[in-house]
Amino acid sequence: MSKGPWSCNEDVLLKKLVNETPKKQDQIHWVEIGRRMNSRTSKQCRERYRHHLDPKSNYYSNMFIQLVIFMIYLTLNLLNINKNIVNRSALSEEEKDLIWDCLTKGITSHASIAKLIPGRTPLQIKNYIYRERAKERVRIKAKMSLPNICNVSATRKLGT
Predict the structure, then answer these.
(1) What is the pLDDT of residues 59-116, one digit of tens each?
(2) Residue of 29, 43, 94, 160 with fewest CB within 10 Å of its CB?
(3) CA neighbor of 121 nearest in space, from 30, 52, 129
(4) Where do the CATH 1.10.10.60 domains begin and end in the chain?
């Protein structure tokens, strides 16, 4: 098995084998092609054909488009053209009330609630809800402690 760059002869042979080898259920039988190729493994043949020789493949054109989109995204962020500025300050009372109103009305999706509050992300909404629920659980546990339930003073002796 050889490593390294593919020769033109190998490319021609691979195309020929792909066209000649019978397909199973419309799938190319790469193991058979690898056996007949002699110099390359079936995986090498499959990758070479899919990414370089297949006339239906648009692998590199898709990569180029994704690269261009990423470059535009970076440029917009560097120029601060992004108008969706995230508000990182603490939630206001109005925002808190709106969140609880949504929850009582059955809107439980953090993303849906975040759309109603400009500048807030779904993660901020989720963290606020989880934090408040955790505080409520602590308050309930404190109320359910033995001294509070029995209304017994900690200094009072039992049996007297």
Answers:
(1) 555 666 666 666 766 665 555 444 457 888 899 999 999 999 888 888 888 888 888 8
(2) 160
(3) 129
(4) 1-83
Please, which residues have CB within 8 angstroms of residue 107's CB and are 6 or more apart in sequence? 113
pLDDT at 100: 92
Q: Which residues pair with 100 in a beta bridge?
A: none
Quote the tokens at residue 40: 């390359």
- Name the CATH topology of 93-149: Arc Repressor Mutant, subunit A (1.10.10)
* 28-41 confidence digits (pLDDT tens): 888 888 888 888 89
Architecture per CATH, domain 1-83, reads as: Orthogonal Bundle (1.10)
pLDDT at 107: 85
What pTM did the predictor assign?
Answer: 0.42
Separation between Cα atoms, residue 89 and residue 122, nearest integer Å = 15
Angle ∠(52,55,58) on CA atoms, nearest 5: 65
